Amino acid sequence: MNPAVTVATMLNCRISSARALCYIAAQIVGAIAGAAMARAMNPSSFHVIHGGANRLNVGWRAGLLGEVMGTLLVVFAFLVAYDRRRRYESDHVNVLAPLMVGLAVTAAHLFLVPFTWCSINPARSLGVAIIANRWTKHWIWWAGPMIAAVAGPLIYESFFKHFYSTAPTEEQLKARQAPYGQEQSYGQQQQQPQYGQQQQQQQQY
Fold first, then answer.
1. What's the CA gap between 68 and 75, in Å, rounded?
2. What is the DSSP track for 40-69?
């Protein structure tokens, strides 16, 4: 739901460029539709706050830096939570991934809302800007997140990839994700011939 995260995952070689473009287009259309629905449901409140459009309460340099840092936090959360190497080595990562991303988004909003009304999502900012017709310093809501989207994967791969082993193969992932019952039956199948051999040995003795 975030073009910045989509670009980061594309640069991290997790999705193709064609799929990334489709995701971004869908995100923008969804943001416009969501803003239009919000205005239709409560026009008076929408116009009072301009649909929640982003605005700067600090200088543009501070706002741009804040958006870069906030989006970096979210991008790092996604990269760590869905790193195939980390998910293979730690069973709890699959369970905690949504919590990690949610906490990162919450922390970014708590930090940035007083200063920029927290974009970290160019699609959301664009959707509200189109429906509310608010374009003041709109470039910041794209430049900041996209800088983080490009820098995030580079920083992650440079500093964090050494903590994990090589990426697992598809066969290893399928074996790791197999249901417990299947793994148990496979172990029983291995044990049965051994048990039969022991009986034969006892009879021969």
1. 10
2. HH-HHHHHHTGGG----SS-HHHHHHHHHH
How long is the chain?
Answer: 205
pTM: 0.76
From CA 83, how far away is CA 164, in angstroms rounded? 10
| Dist CA 76 CA 18 (whole Å) | 23
- Do 74 and 108 contact (CB within 8 A), yes or no? yes
**How far apart, in whole angstroms, are the C-alpha atoms of residue 8 and residue 150?**
6
Structure tokens of 43?
């026009």
* Residue with tokens 């598809």, as numbered in its chain: 170
The CA-atom distances, in angstroms, between 77 and each of 44, 96, 97, 128, 134 are 37, 11, 8, 25, 30
For residue range 10-56, list pLDDT tens digits in order: 998 889 999 999 999 999 999 999 999 999 999 999 999 999 999 99
Are 145 and 118 in contact by the 8 Å Cβ rule? The answer is: no
